[in-house]
Input
Amino acid sequence: MSLSLGIDTGGTFTDAVLFDPDRGVVAAAKRLTTKHDLALGIGAAIDAVLEQHPAEIGFVGLSTTLATNAVVEGQGNPACLILIGYPDAALDRAGLREALGGDPVVAVSGGHRPTGEEQAPLDLEAVRAAILRHAPAVTAFAVAGYFAVRNPAHEQAVRDLVRDLTGKPVTCGHELTSGLDAPRRALTALLNARLIPLTASLIRAVRGRLDARGITAPLMVVKGDGSLIADRFALARPVETVLSGPAASVVGARWLTGRDDCFVSDIGGTTTDIAILKDGRPLLNREGAQVGGWRTMVEAVEIRTFGLGGDSEVRVEPSFGLAVGPRRSVPLSLLAHQHPEMLAVLRRQAERPEGISLDGRFALRLRALDTEADTLSPQERRIWEALADGPQPLETVLTSHLLDRPLERLVARGLVILSGFTPTDAAHVLGLHDGWSREAALLGAVLWTRRPAEPGWTPAADAEAFARSVLERLTADSALALVEAALARDGVADPAREARGLLPRRAVAGDASVAASALLRPALTLGLPLVGIGASAGTYYPEIARRLGTESVVPEHAGVTNAIGAVASGVLQTVAITITAPEEGRFRVHAPAGIRTFDSLDEAAAHAEAEARGRAEALAREAGGQQVAVTVTRADRVVSMAGGLDMFVESTVTATAAGRPRMG
Output
């Protein structure tokens, strides 16, 4: 009997499992993610499980946290955003201008009205010129047209022109959502365009490793809502895979624990992802899940993602004290494990009479150059070339303060990554983790005890005390993140602020002075059990659950939950079509294939239902589903007028197609 192979590629580890729906996990393995060449880590994980249990593979499922991590850390490939018919003020809404950073944005005339008619003709010549001007310096394009969800014709025309002229990936706003928030739709298109090359390279790496081993089984990828799509579908529309890893973790947690109602908190190397299971199904956010500081419009499992993980950068936050995250840093223990020569540098720094702020910090290349080769500034190129032979201490890289910002730009582009002390190192110091170099972790902690004091922070007395303070900070902030997620679900407008007000960071940290002297000691209780998953879940979540007065559940195989979720789900495709009334007695259907107007609502609804049903079923089959079943619902918005009359506003027809993944 053939088995399913589940693979999850995260920021630190790549996991693989052999899975049987009746027997569960047959074999599991974790290997380091090799970001410079993803295929190496993927191949090592696949080899490890097949060596444990050679088997015929009938289906391969893939999930990944790489896209989520990149958004949280502000990384991604350069992309050009083309806005069609947007007002000038749009850039100052939804964080769009901030998200653009230094990436190009082009505004052209065109766009549509709410009723679907053109508000202005599309300026294709301006579009052509912009594409040719920016294509050499970007890896993808994002296209957002005003009211494109009511008529996508202009977005589709620009998309086709990008493909004809460049062959580069392009994301259209109407493909992501039917929501009407134009600036946020443009933001989501931009974020996802930046992630397309990363997703495509991952899928190709997995397919290449499977082919090399003679595994011809279908390859499917987890979407952000926890369902599956075929690899060819994901390559054509990789935006579907944003939040893939967090969604897979929820599906896997449900299968492992059998819990129908619970919090699911997944701690990885870079992020902590928090979701809620209700009646055995993950709650979905129809408006789009929040990733880091961005509110996306990709329909996905309702997940709040925080920059907290085992590899979070340890730093001093002015006037507050020790902080972790949101940026990932290569743990010193891992750096020395992979590059033993770095131990000598740490020893030399520890032997100096006085410590400096750059002690215990390194930089190394993360991946090869692509289009950035032509856009590196002289200072960026100087740093890049200094890292050609491997990791270097920051004290030798940052020979001038003028190089600080160029280094940050290289990090933001995902070309370079920093290394320093992390919670993973703290776990090594305290004997909670022994996978890599404890000496490097210990030296890193010693260097922190020698750093000059800063406002709000005083160095710890010794290395172990410092390591305990780091793990305490991660534990406290993780508890705060759960409180924030609970408040957000309860509809609180500013859950982050309210969480800090209800549970001050010093109080949730279990600060001894607070416990001994405070006359008011806040205590909150989560309303659901806490399922903790991730490689280090057993280290943190029992204590976090205790502080929040709830039950802790850390299941067996918690460290490979995402890989289990990658093969424990099914295919699901949803198509929503809107019907509006541009004038009395006329009803307009806004379908992806174009708009049509009818004289009666019944005729319009019948057409919309047929269009939605057919497209949803076709998408489900294209996504790799078999035995597809389609359900259709219709929701009318009607306003009661004076005199007892009802006025039709709009109707939404939604078709949902569900099927089982195709086995080889």
Observations:
- Residues 506-517 have pLDDT under 50 and may be disordered.
- The radius of gyration is 26 Å.
- The longest strand covers residues 625-640.
